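Practice record 12: protein with uridine-5'-diphosphate.
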Amino acid sequence: MGCDVLCVDNFYSGTKDNVAHLLGNPCFELMRHDVTFPLYVEVDEIYNFACPASPVHYQWDPVQTTKTSVHGAINMLGLAKRVKAKILQASTSEVYGDPQVHPQRENYWGHVNPIGLRSCYDEGKRCAETLFFDYHRQHSLQIRVARIFNTYGPHMHPNDGRVVSNFIVQALGNKDITIYGDGSQTRSFQYVDDLIEGMVRLMENAVGFIGPVNLGNPVEFTIRQLAEKVLRLIPNSTSKLVFNDLPADDPIQRKPDISLAQEKLDWAPRVPLDEGLTRTIDYFRRKLGSV
Ligand code: UDP
Ligand code: UDP
């Protein structure tokens, strides 16, 4: 798009490897920084993606997780206010909690446990949405809020802990596939390129549509179906399915209603799960050196 890009990361759950190929590009700059501290730079647009999204990582230091979402949002909104930048927040389907409405539309207020193990993430992201809308109303900031549903793809960390990378890494290593619970809970998996397309359309839309808007793939699978799919795509794997305890507050079903994104952004995901999984499996094969 011809933009200069300043990438700000504290590498809590990411690695420099993922941007190594950009380091020699004169339009790209990398800065090690934690958004819970103020940041003084000059920019036109801000994509605020900060906060680990894998339950394993965000529950490791839950206080820091809330700080990242809340203090991080305040600092990025303060920055946007000073330099008059447009700012997009990566919100989440977790704002719907363990939903009692299915599929989830943007006008559903959610069903969130405020004191559980997931609350640091869910309530942090909900408070960030509040801050975005209050900076919009109070300070006329140009905001965008995307609610991201389960997303996967190349460049996930092998120890990310979320289900798609776990199952692929386990299958490639001939280790047990760890299904939590009986595997009947559902998720809808979006390939990363579809998400990026949706976020850029949201940021750039000319009619000033601010959201919140769901970005996700509405094709729903049970976790058991996902495990079986991964094994079908890695046919020489000797992995077996094993069933472990279901973590507390694990949502039973989740699927986005994307009619708002379709209407306002002319956006819908294009990459079906089989194709996205194949690309992700190829990535992990190369990364882990397995055949
Ligand atoms: N802030 C920042 N970069 C800036 C401007 C502000 O990191 O370029 C931070 C600053 O630390 C402040 C926060 O953003 O605490 C909120 O800024 P705002 O102007 O909304 O509030 P105030 O400074 O009046 O508390
Ligand atoms: N899950 C699983 N095995 C794993 C990791 C996750 O069965 O090794 C389940 C998890 O309990 C949840 C679903 O897969 O029901 C999606 O989990 P993930 O951590 O990817 O994201 P979530 O949508 O729960 O934030």
